[in-house]
Write a structure and sequence with these properties.
The chain is α/β, with parallel strands linked by helices and 266 residues long. The protein is built from nine helices and twelve strands. It folds into two domains: 2-121 and 235-262, Rossmann fold; 127-232, Dihydrodipicolinate Reductase, domain 2 (2-Layer Sandwich), CATH 3.30.360. Strands 3-2-1-4-5-6-12 form a seven-stranded parallel sheet, sandwiched between helices. It has a five-stranded mixed sheet with strand order 8-9-7-10-11, with helices on one face. β4 (71-74), α4 and β5 form a beta-alpha-beta unit. α4 runs parallel beside α5 (104-113).
């Protein structure tokens, strides 16, 4: 049985992951973490996720709760990662990071810490999106720069970062297979932009309503168009992927892993 701690336990993703973990015999929930001053601190996790009392509370003391855990899943704000990372290293706890918008300085800290503990970091945990990454690499390597490339993503009105972590991952993939650089990316268009330049990649972030997450990759050629689309209708898709990642990581040696490895797509 994998002893699980959820960072960002009272958030939307945190609650869904805890709900699914409570139904999975592979997991034992041993704690939840929230930031200082959060209203959920001291609360039992059971009622927080619509269950009976579990005798497991939400705390801000990451070291104390991780000392009895095998894996931590983190869907809190990226600003909490450095502190949670330090606690995970101190307690030798495997660490699944699902937060997005992570700044480069924190990514460097994650890579450094992965020499001491197993870490899995992915901008999107869903199985479908990780298949999209694989298909995007294949399509991008076959459809050359004579095909104009556009990425469009839509998320709910409350999402704070843009473009989405998934869109940025797609850019990373296309940079590798197409040889693109940051100078080749156009974030939206306005005014007299002139004709579209060959080899540019357009990225558009739409925000509104309660959209869980839609991503569309469009390859537009002369006489034809190829589109790859993923639409998430429930956050459970991300939660199930995160739990798969936790099962995978609990058995691993120190290192930096991703969802492609979890799903045997690497």
């Amino acid at each position: 049985m994998i002893k699980l701690v959820m960072a960002g336990a009272a958030g939307r993703m945190g609650k869904i992951i805890l709900q699914l973990a409570s139904q999975d015999k592979a997991f034992k929930i041993v704690g939840g973490i929230e930031q200082r001053g959060h209203a959920a601190l001291g609360q039992d996790i059971g009622p927080l996720i619509g269950k009976d009392l579990m005798g497991v509370k939400v705390t801000q003391d990451a070291v104390a709760v991780l000392s009895q855990a095998d894996v931590m899943i983190d869907f809190s704000h990226f600003s909490a990662i450095p502190e949670n990372l330090k606690a995970a290293v101190q307690t030798h706890t495997a660490y699944v990071i699902g937060a997005t918008g992570i700044p480069p300085v924190t990514i460097k800290q994650v890579k450094s810490a992965s020499k001491k503990i197993p870490i899995l970091q992915s901008p999107n945990m869903s199985i479908g999106v990780n298949l999209l990454f694989k298909l995007a690499a294949l399509a991008g390597s076959i459809l050359d720069k004579s095909y104009d490339l556009e990425i469009t993503e839509i998320h709910h009105r409350m999402k704070k970062d843009a473009p989405s972590g998934t869109a940025l991952k797609l850019l990373e993939i296309f940079a590798e297979v197409r040889g693109c650089t940051k100078k080749d990316v156009v974030y939206g268009r306005n005014g007299e932009t002139g004709a579209r330049e060959k080899g540019k990649i357009g990225v558009f972030a739409l925000r509104g309503g309660d959209v869980v997450g839609d991503h569309t990759i469009s390859f537009l050629g002369d006489g034809e168009r190829v589109e790859l689309i993923h639409r998430a209708s429930s956050r459970e898709a991300f939660a199930r992927g995160a739990l798969l990642a936790a099962k995978f990581l609990a058995k691993k040696k120190p290192g930096l892993y991703d969802m492609q490895q979890v799903l045997n797509m690497a």
